[in-house]
């Protein structure tokens, strides 16, 4: 099934994954539009991530988690042909960091996977969570569950590892594709967001800390 899963994920005729969309007319859609508008206006990214006055923090986090999932999906999808079982037999960030996969179903213990396998499991797992109405409710008046921010922390921590792997192992491919500016902007936006709301443990950020110092971030 893994080979089939990878084949579906990396089928070049389609976008990497069907995008999760916000329903027009909903509060979350309006919030998404607001976030996208300030992003496009070229405002300082540190300002863009701040919670707009009067908005719910959980709604704001939900909108960004879904948007980052969509965008990081596309980033990895465009360069997945360079990330293979052969080139990346371990999901890692250089020699110092190795990421093992664990979930509540197939992999109950942290398990070594190749980078493409890890990415496939990760994207499936996130997609399942963000489409679960009990965790990411879309109906007006339905409250977020108590553990909502914990779930988002787990999602964002694992999405951060995609950046770690891509930057450390595939940066030459990013440059060759002319995607460096796009990936950097997405990463900065993601980084300022998780810092603004303390959503990812600072120890998880260590693999890319030198790059951040280069920006004065």
UniProtKB/TrEMBL annotation:
Residues annotated for Zn(2+) binding in this entry: 83, 88, 165, 170
Keywords annotated in UniProt: Kinase, Metal-binding, Transferase, Zinc
InterPro entries the record matches: MOB_kinase_act_fam (IPR005301), MOB_kinase_act_sf (IPR036703)
Gene Ontology MF, one: kinase activity
Family matches, as Pfam families: Mob1_phocein
Protein name according to UniProt: MOB3C kinase
Organism name: Crotophaga sulcirostris (Groove-billed ani)
């Amino acid at each position: 099934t893994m080979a089939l899963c990878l084949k579906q994920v990396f089928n070049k005729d389609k976008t990497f994954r069907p995008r999760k969309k916000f329903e027009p007319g909903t509060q979350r859609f309006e919030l998404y539009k607001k976030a996208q508008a300030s992003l496009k206006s070229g405002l300082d990214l540190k300002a863009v991530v701040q919670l707009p006055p009067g908005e719910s923090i959980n709604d704001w986090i939900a909108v960004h988690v879904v948007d980052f999932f969509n965008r990081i999906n596309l980033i990895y999808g465009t360069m997945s042909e360079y990330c293979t079982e052969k080139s990346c037999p371990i999901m890692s960030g250089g020699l110092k960091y190795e990421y093992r996969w664990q979930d509540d179903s197939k992999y109950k213990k942290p398990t070594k996977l190749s980078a493409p396998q890890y990415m496939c499991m990760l994207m499936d797992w996130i997609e399942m969570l963000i489409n679960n109405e009990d965790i990411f409710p879309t109906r007006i008046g339905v409250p977020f569950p108590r553990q909502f921010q914990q779930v988002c922390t787990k999602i964002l921590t694992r999405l951060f590892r995609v950046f770690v792997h891509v930057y450390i192992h595939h940066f030459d491919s990013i440059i060759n594709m002319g995607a460096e500016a796009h990936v950097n902007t997405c990463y900065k936006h993601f980084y300022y967001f998780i810092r603004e709301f303390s959503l990812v443990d600072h120890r998880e950020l260590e693999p890319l800390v030198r790059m951040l110092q280069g920006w004065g971030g």
